[in-house]
Amino acid sequence: RSFKASESEQTHRYMLAHQTSMSASLKESEAEHAAAQELIRSTFASQQDGREQLQQERRRAEASQSSLVTSISDLEVEAAEARSLTLSRMQVLEQRAQQQRASLHADA
Asked: Residue ranges of region Disordered (predicted)?
């Protein structure tokens, strides 16, 4: 009888140890799962930040390009106006020169 009781007690202790071990394994697995979820969340947040940063940089680059295109257009308009003024001025100077030649010939 005492052998049976001793065997039963031993089995009970074994079961308790097994249960404690399983409980520890479960807690460890839950901790690993929580860590993996946090890593996923952190990675997702980081990717989101990266996307937002890229979009901001793209918007800045587009604004800068737009500004450059506007500046180039303004310069082209100014150059055309300067050419036009220069041509007008040259025509005025040529007319004066012709008038002076005519008046020189008239005086002669």
From this structure: 1-70
